[in-house]
Write a structure and sequence with these properties.
- This protein has helices spanning about 1-25, 25-55, 60-65.
- It is mainly alpha-helical and about 90 residues long.
- It has a domain at about 25-60.
């Protein structure tokens, strides 16, 4: 029964908005502006998705840059901790 109530409420709200838009040119302008912004957002999301998809579809070799060869700088070997000599008996 709750689902039917929400369904009927949605239909009533839709009809009220449609009537208001049909009667008021300012409401029509607001609706057109909202629709334009939604299309712009959708286009931006779609463009970003396509760019990222293109980045991911490139071969891995082309996207990973190898660091320039550096002179081999060796780190000094770690010193071992001094061990205690056993006491002479």
């Amino acid at each position: 029964m709750k689902k039917f109530l929400w369904f009927a409420t949605g239909i009533a709200a839709g009809l009220a908005v449609a009537k208001r838009v049909a009667e008021d040119p300012q409401a029509q302008a607001m609706l057109d502006d909202a629709a334009k912004r939604a299309r712009d957002l959708g286009a931006a999301l779609s463009e970003g998705f396509k760019e990222r998809e293109t980045e991911l579809s490139k071969p891995a070799r082309a996207t990973v840059k190898k660091p320039a060869a550096k002179a081999a700088a060796k780190k000094p070997a770690a010193k071992k901790p001094a061990t205690k000599k056993p006491a002479a008996k």
